[in-house]
Write a structure and sequence with these properties.
This protein has 654 residues and is mostly helical. It is built from 22 helices and 5 strands.
Length: 654
C-alpha cells in the first residue's frame, strides 16, 4: 500500500455521545445476512485465499514441466498475471510493493510459456525490470531450483541438497524433522527432484536467454549468505566442500533415501486435499511422480492432480491458483462473528457450522508434531479441509473458543481433547508456534537453502495470544503454569512502542489486537501498564477517516509503520483490541465504528482490496477474502454488546 494516498472521505465529526442506534443494528443485521448467504449447505465457509503472482505462475510452469499444457486455463491465468503487473513492469509481493525479481521472473516465464511475444510492451517492461535487478542470478533459491529443472540455469546455481539427508538421525544438526511443517513437505519431494536432476518436458522448448545478464555457462550463480552472520558464510564454505563429496556418496544410500522420501509422501498424500495442504508441496510431489515415470492413470497421480486443480479460482476471463484452502479458519472466524450477533440457541446456521467443525477434529492420528511431543494426544484442527498430519494450534484455539460459547453437551469431549493437545504443544519459553513445539533450531536459518527466511516455526506472539485466550476463556487462571508462563512470554515480546509483532496477520495491528485479547482474559493488574501502552499505540495509529490500515512493508526493519490506508479488517482488529483493553467507550473506538458503518455497502458489504495477512514475512503475502466479511461484523456486534453493559467487559478470549 505504499505511495497510495489515504482515503479520508467526507466523514462528519463523530458526536462522542450520540448513540448509533438503528443504523448500527441495520448494518449488523445486513452484514450477518450477507455472511450467512455465503455459508455452504453443509455448514462451513471457505473464502478465496489470494497470494502474489508466484503461485499462479508456478501452476503454468508445473503444466509445462509435466508436458501437459492447458491452454484454456493458462490463458485465463495469463490474463490475471497481466492485470496485476505493476507500472514499472514487475510483479510485487503485494499491492503497492516494490517489484520482486523472483516473482517477476516466474511471471515472465509463465507468460512466455503460454505464448506471449517477448517484444510485447508488458514483456519488454518485465524484462527490463529483471535485467535492472541483476538478471536470473539474483533470483532466490526456490526459483533457481525451478530454472534448473527447465535447464535454464546450471544445477550449481542451487545449494547442495543431498536427498541422503533424509537418513540423518535426529541428533544430526541438519535433519528434516527440525524444519517447519511447510518446509518439510516442500523439501522432501524437492530433494528427490534434485537427486534425479529432474528435467522438465517443456514441450514448447521455451528458454529465458534474454534474461541472462551473462552467458549461461560463464555466469557465476553465487549462493548468498541468508543472514549475513558468520555462520552463513561458514555454511557457504561447507556447501562448496559438499559439492566435492557429493559424487562419492554410495548409490545405495541415495536409493534408500529416495525410498524413504516416497514413503513420507505416500503417507501424507492427504487425498484430494494434497500433500501438506499447500500448493508447493503438492506440485513437487506430482513432479516426483512424473520424474519417476508414474503413469498418468496411476491413482496417486490422479489424486495429486485433483488436489492442485481444486485450488483454482475462476472469475470471467481470469483465473488464479490459491496457495491453499482455508475452510476451518474461515468457518471458525465466521462462527465467532455469528455468535456475537445472536444467542446460539436454536440458530440453525451456528448449529450446522458446529457440526461441520466437530467432524473435522483430528483425534486419531499422531502427526509430525508428535516427534517433539510424544506424550501429547491428538485433538487439534487443521487449516484446510483435511491435513491430519499437520493440525494448526491457531485454528484449534479459535475453534475451541467458539465451541465453548455454544455450550452444547456434545462439544465437551472435543474441547477436552483439543485443550489437552494445546497444553501439550506449549514450547519451553512459554509461547506457542503454529504447527510444532520448540521448532527453534536457529542454526538452520544460516544454510543457503534458507534464503526465504521461513525454514522454522518458532513461537509467536499472535499464536501464543490465541492459546492463552482459549485457556483463560475455559477457566484457567494465573495459578496454572501454562497461563503463567504464556503471559510471561507474551509480555516479554511487547515492542518498546507498546505494539506486538504479528506473524500471521499484517502486522503490528494484528499482533497487538491478539495480545490485548489474551491479556484481557488471562492477565491481571501487573500487566496493566503494558495494556495501556498497547492501547495508546493503537489509538496513535488511527487514520483521519477513523479507520486503521497497515502496509505490508512494516515487515522490513527500518521501513517504518505506514498506516495511511484504512482496511475494514484492520479497523476491526484495532477496535477489538481497544475494547479488550477497556477502551470500548472511548472516542477512538466510536470513530472506528463510524468508519465501518459509513463504508458498508448494503449490497456487497465492505470492500477490501489490499493484502491483509502474511505467509512468510518479506517473502510471501496473502489476502484472505473472508476477512472483510466476518471481522467487521464481529467488531460491530461486540461493540453493541458492550455498550449494553455498564462495565463494558468482554468475557470471551476472541
Amino acid at each position: 500500500m505504499r505511495n497510495l494516498e489515504p482515503n479520508n472521505g467526507d466523514i462528519e465529526p463523530v458526536d462522542p455521545e450520540a448513540p448509533f442506534g438503528p443504523r448500527l443494528d441495520s448494518v449488523i443485521s445486513t452484514a450477518r445476512d450477507q455472511l450467512i448467504a455465503l455459508q455452504a449447505e453443509d455448514g462451513h465457509w471457505s473464502f478465496e485465499l489470494e497470494a502474489d503472482a508466484t503461485i499462479p505462475s508456478e501452476y503454468i510452469l508445473l503444466n509445462h514441466f509435466l508436458g501437459d499444457p492447458n491452454d484454456e486455463v493458462e490463458g485465463k491465468i495469463s490474463n490475471y498475471l497481466r492485470r496485476i503487473q505493476n507500472a514499472e513492469g514487475g510483479w510485487p509481493l503485494y499491492q503497492g510493493g516494490a517489484s520482486n525479481i523472483s516473482a517477476t521472473v516466474k511471471a515472465y516465464f509463465a507468460l512466455k510459456l503460454v505464448g506471449d511475444d517477448i517484444d510485447a510492451p508488458h514483456m519488454t517492461r518485465a524484462r527490463k525490470t529483471v535485467l535492472a535487478g541483476g538478471g536470473l542470478a539474483e533470483c532466490n533459491v526456490f526459483t533457481r531450483y525451478t530454472l534448473a529443472m527447465f535447464n535454464i540455469v546450471p544445477w550449481r546455481a542451487v545449494p547442495v541438497s543431498p536427498v541422503e539427508i533424509l537418513l540423518a538421525p535426529r541428533w544430526f544438526p541438519i535433519q528434516i524433522g527440525k524444519v517447519s511443517y511447510w518446509s518439510r513437505t516442500v523439501t522432501v519431494p524437492l530433494l528427490v527432484l534434485t537427486a534425479l536432476r529432474a528435467d522438465a518436458e517443456n514441450p514448447r522448448n521455451i528458454g529465458l536467454d534474454e534474461l541472462q545478464s551473462d552467458d549461461r555457462d560463464r555466469a557465476y550463480y553465487a549462493l548468498k549468505n541468508p543472514t549475513g552472520h558468520w555462520l552463513g558464510g561458514l555454511m557457504i564454505r561447507i556447501d562448496k566442500l559438499a559439492r566435492q563429496i557429493e559424487p562419492f556418496i554410495p548409490k545405495r544410500w541415495t536409493q534408500r533415501a529416495i525410498d524413504r522420501a516416497l514413503v513420507f509422501i505416500d503417507e501424507r498424500l492427504n487425498g484430494e486435499d494434497g500433500l501438506g495442504g499447500i500448493f508447493p508441496a503438492m506440485a513437487n510431489a506430482l513432479m516426483v511422480f512424473h520424474t519417476l515415470g508414474y503413469d498418468k492413470d496411476d491413482p496417486k497421480v490422479i489424486t495429486a492432480r485433483k488436489a492442485i486443480d481444486r485450488l483454482l479460482v475462476f472469475s470471467g476471463d481470469e483465473a488464479y491458483c490459491q496457495p491453499c484452502l482455508s475452510p476451518v479458519w474461515d468457518t471458525g472466524l465466521a462462527l465467532h462473528a455469528l455468535l456475537e450477533t445472536e444467542p446460539p440457541e436454536n440458530d440453525l446456521h451456528i448449529a450446522k457450522a458446529t457440526d461441520w467443525l466437530l467432524e473435522r477434529q483430528i483425534s486419531d492420528l499422531r502427526g509430525d508434531w508428535a516427534v517433539m511431543r510424544p506424550d501429547a494426544q491428538p485433538g487439534g484442527w487443521a487449516f484446510q479441509y483435511r491435513n491430519d498430519y499437520y493440525p494448526d494450534v491457531d485454528d484449534t484455539a479459535v475453534v475451541v473458543m467458539g465451541l465453548d460459547r455454544i455450550k452444547r453437551p456434545e462439544t465437551d469431549p472435543a474441547i477436552k481433547r483439543a485443550t489437552d493437545w494445546v497444553l501439550g504443544m506449549q514450547s519451553k519459553n512459554g509461547g506457542w508456534a503454529a504447527f510444532d513445539a520448540d521448532n527453534t533450531y536457529h542454526l538452520l536459518e544460516h544454510v543457503p537453502f534458507a534464503d526465504h527466511g521461513a525454514l522454522l516455526d518458532p513461537p509467536t506472539s499472535d499464536v501464543s495470544a490465541r492459546c492463552l485466550s482459549m485457556l483463560a476463556q475455559l477457566g484457567y487462571d494465573k495459578s496454572h503454569p501454562a497461563i503463567r508462563r504464556g503471559v510471561g512470554y507474551l509480555c516479554s515480546e511487547q515492542e518498546e512502542d507498546g505494539s506486538w509483532f504479528g506473524r500471521w496477520g499484517t502486522n503490528y495491528i494484528y499482533g497487538t489486537w491478539s495480545a490485548l485479547c489474551a491479556l484481557n482474559v488471562a492477565g491481571d493488574e501487573q500487566e496493566g501498564a503494558g495494556i495501556a501502552r498497547a492501547a495508546d499505540w493503537l489509538e496513535g495509529q488511527q487514520n483521519e477517516d477513523g479507520g486503521w490500515g497497515e502496509d505490508c512493508a512494516t515487515y522490513w526493519d527500518g521501513e517504518g509503520k505506514d498506516f495511511g490506508i484504512s482496511l475494514p479488517s484492520q479497523t476491526a482488529w484495532a477496535i477489538l483490541g481497544l475494547m479488550a483493553a477497556g477502551r470500548g467507550h472511548g472516542s477512538a473506538v466510536r470513530r472506528g465504528i463510524e468508519h465501518l458503518l459509513s463504508n458498508f455497502d448494503p449490497e456487497n458489504g465492505w470492500y477490501e482490496e489490499y493484502y491483509n495477512a502474511v505467509g512468510f514475512p518479506r517473502v510471501f503475502y496473502l489476502k484472505y477474502h473472508g476477512y472483510r466479511s466476518y471481522f467487521p461484523l464481529l467488531a460491530l456486534s461486540r461493540y453493541r454488546n458492550i455498550e449494553a453493559r455498564d462495565d463494558g467487559r468482554i468475557d470471551f478470549g476472541f
